[in-house]
Amino acid sequence: QVQLVESGGGLVQAGGSLRLSCTASGLTFNQYTIAWFRQAPGKEREFVASHVHKDGSSYYADSVKGRFTITRDFAKNTVHLQMNNLKVEDATVYYCNAISNYNNNWGQGTQVTVSS
Questions:
Q1: Contact partners, residue 62, CB within 8 Å, separation at least 6
Q2: pLDDT tens-digit profile of 11-66?
Q3: 2 and 25 Cβ atoms separated by less than 8 Å
Q4: What is the spatial distance between Cα 13 and Cα 48, in angstroms, rounded to a whole number?
Q5: What are the two backbone dihedrals, phi and then psi, of residue 36, each rounded to the nearest 5 degrees?
Q6: Which residues contact 100 (CB under 8 A, 6 or more apart)?
Q7: For residue 47, what are the CA distances in angstroms to 31, 60, 74?
């Protein structure tokens, strides 16, 4: 059974930093692209960043480019999302996503709160 466990969310002041982590189990980690999405109440889930397993490339939403960095630790089956210079509009629930050619899996989410 695939499990994705997010951690690292919390409360931070605008301009501050947080590092989210997503630890995966029950899957062959190096066969999955891992991504972060976020979803505010009443809004659609939106893409934040991804790390592609095939070539190690990373992609970012325009809104987070230059501020967020996604990294992957294959030895620990973990992906991190380093979030710097956080803005009030970054505050919401962040979800980890693991996708392959065969299935799509989601974590439970972790709350990020940014105070002004």
A1: none
A2: 999 999 999 999 999 999 999 999 999 999 999 999 999 999 999 999 999 999 99
A3: yes
A4: 20
A5: -115, 135
A6: 27, 31, 32, 33
A7: 20, 8, 22
